[in-house]
Write a sequence for this structure.
């Protein structure tokens, strides 16, 4: 390198140093602080993004856990609905359905729908059996009559169907008082149209005058209510109703 070139480089470096040295220290400090703020803002944005993702992952995990719990509950309900029913004295069975028939001659005075005081002890027993053996099942209460027309109390009822419905509702209300939640119950009547025996004899008519309390698989197990269908060949002798899923 020639002497002239060395002098040129040296002068340039000197001017550069002089230029840096002439800068305002306050400006340099402000620039450094601005750079630090920018860096912190970037880090903060990154932390916020990661926090939002963590919250989203947590919520997704909670939703999955809730869905699994619902599936588990549904499986438990289905298992309960398909578990073999143990035979209970006084109850009849067909598949996953069970019912007991209570004579209306015992429950009510002739042509009336007011429960006899002596009948309450029997209904207490029925409620105990339901709670012990069918705690997760829906309960239907259906009244039935014979074919004889209503005479003494015909001013109270339109016909036998009307009387049977009111008797079913009377028993329904008593079961709720004894601890069966209305949310799992249904009340109604079928009048003279689903007889157990022939109405041509006194004994047959007595069998037909009844209130049936039926334990059916819970609606959650099938997604819809079950139905009772009349069959040509009843599952049990003398029984005109065979409960089957819809």
């Amino acid at each position: 390198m020639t002497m002239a070139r060395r002098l040129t480089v040296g002068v340039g470096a000197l001017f550069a140093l002089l230029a840096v040295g002439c800068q305002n220290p306050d400006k340099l400090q402000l620039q450094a602080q601005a750079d630090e703020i920018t860096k912190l803002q970037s880090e903060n944005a990154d932390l916020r993004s990661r926090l939002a993702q963590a919250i989203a992952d947590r919520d997704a995990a909670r939703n999955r856990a809730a869905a699994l719990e619902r599936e588990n509950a549904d499986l438990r309900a289905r298992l309960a609905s398909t578990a073999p029913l143990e035979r209970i004295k006084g109850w009849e069975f067909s598949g996953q359905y069970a019912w007991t028939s209570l004579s209306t001659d015992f429950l009510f005075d002739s042509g009336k729908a007011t429960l006899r005081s002596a009948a309450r002890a029997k209904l207490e027993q029925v409620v105990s059996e339901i709670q012990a053996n069918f705690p997760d099942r829906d309960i239907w209460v259906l009244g039935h009559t014979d074919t004889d027309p209503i005479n003494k109390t015909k001013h109270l009822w339109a016909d036998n169907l009307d009387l049977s419905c009111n008797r079913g509702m009377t028993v329904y209300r008593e079961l709720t008082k004894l601890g069966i939640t209305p949310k799992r119950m249904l009340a109604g009547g079928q009048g003279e149209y689903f007889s157990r025996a022939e109405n041509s004899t006194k004994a047959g008519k007595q069998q037909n005058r009844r209130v049936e309390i039926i334990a059916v698989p819970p609606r959650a197990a099938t997604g819809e209510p079950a139905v009772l269908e009349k069959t040509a060949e009843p599952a049990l002798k003398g029984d005109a109703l065979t409960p089957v899923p819809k």
Summary: Confidence is low (pLDDT under 50) at residues 228-246.
